[in-house]
Amino acid sequence: MFWYSVAIIWASWYADCVSCLLHANNVCRQLRDYSTIETNTNCSYNPDVGSTPRLIAKRYGYPFENHEVTTHDGYILNLHRVPGPRNTISKNGKKRTPIFIVHGLAANSAFSFMQGKKSIAFYLADSGFDVWSGNLRGNTYANKHINGTVSNAEYWDFGIEDIALNDLPASIDYIACQIGEKGNLIYIGHSMGTTVSYIYSTLMRKHAGENLKAIISMAPVAYMTNTQGLFKTLAPSTELLTGILKSNGIYYIGQFPFTFPVISDLCGKYPFINLCNLVTILAGGYSESQFQAEILPVFWSFYPSPISLGILQHFSQFSGGRFARRDYGPSGNMDRYGSDIPPEYDVSQIPVPVHLFVGQYDAIATLKDAEHLESKINSGSAVAKAKLYMFPYDHNNFYTAKISKPLFKTIVQIART
Question: Where is the Partial AB-hydrolase lipase domain (predicted)?
Fold first, then answer.
């Protein structure tokens, strides 16, 4: 009996310790507070760090559905749906305008849930929309194939155009099938999510015209002549670096779920949180008014998802001033396109309105390049035209900004027009 009582006491103590450890402070209001996170009253516990879209939605009382989509070429993707506002059931019978959110480079659908109850997915759901957050092949929630796994080199043999011509139409068709209608879908892309939308809507113009009502581009990436920061520095070396990686049997960069704790422990904690934050600033710019130190551990628990080397190679081309198809060299281009150089994407033929949301402090998707894209889209005979909007954001602030309501309200206004 004595040892039984000791065991019970020990088990209770152990459970309390585990609970304490699991709920230890993991976010702080200021960067400097992270050095004393354990005892600092400006720090607290955020359960969303390292969480999943399903758990985050459940935590804040929103309905959530996971839908599995298989593309024409066999990649298996997951769509994360918030079909209605807080404290409602999924099947409430009410028709809502569908919104399809597509993440950027090395991101995933969790970005739509990054700010907890203030996230874009929840705001739009509360505003009366049927919100679908997509996942593009290779990322944390889209890392399966009908014929193999992510450890297979063939799995990673894809680029931006493969995503645009397979992942987008498969996801869009699936959403249309689920809701029983097409032609009313609002597409919201961020960064690479904008790039693939332009490729899709030019090369699959008919499909886009039949399914989309409008494209909203947060941090639009197409022409990258004026891109600054790390991307500009590394772009000229991309072919060399990817060649070295491939020669060593590495076909992607990023992390998978089992490595997330490593990145989260490094970039979400002192002192590395300062270094990792500096990297994001050098890459995407910095908006002092929108910076939130509290969001950094959440951000680094979701980022970076794996990306193929083919994606990086194609993106590096855009810095040359042409928004064109993948360059395979003169001989390869002749075989594929019938010309020595790859043809440009004719964005003037996009069949739906394009709303370009530009960050004032964005080092990647700059105002000058967005204005050039706007003029290119508006140069055609297509009825749909582009319109440019400015926000006091850097590249990632479209998901992480301290003040997001002006952005969200603009989206709602466009979606209801």
Answer: 56-114
The domains of the chain, with CATH numbers, are 2-316+348-416 (3.40.50.1820)
Q: Is residue 124 within a helix (H) or strand (E), and if so which, with residue range?
A: helix 120-126
Strand partners, 253: 307
Amino acid at 342: P
Report the catalytic residues. Answer: 191, 362, 395
Q: Give the model's confidence band at 209: pLDDT under 50 very low, under 70 low, under 90 confident, else very high.
A: very high
* pTM beyond 0.85, yes or no: yes
DSSP code per residue over 12-34:
HHHHHHHHHHHTS--EESSGGGG
Name 216's bridge partners: 188, 355
Helix axes 192-203, 168-179, angle to 10 degrees: 80
Dump strand ranges (E) for 109-229. Answer: 129-133, 144-145, 148-149, 185-190, 212-218
Where is pLDDT greater, at 20 or 349?
A: 349
How far apart (Å, rounded) are the C-alpha atoms in residues 258 and 267?
16
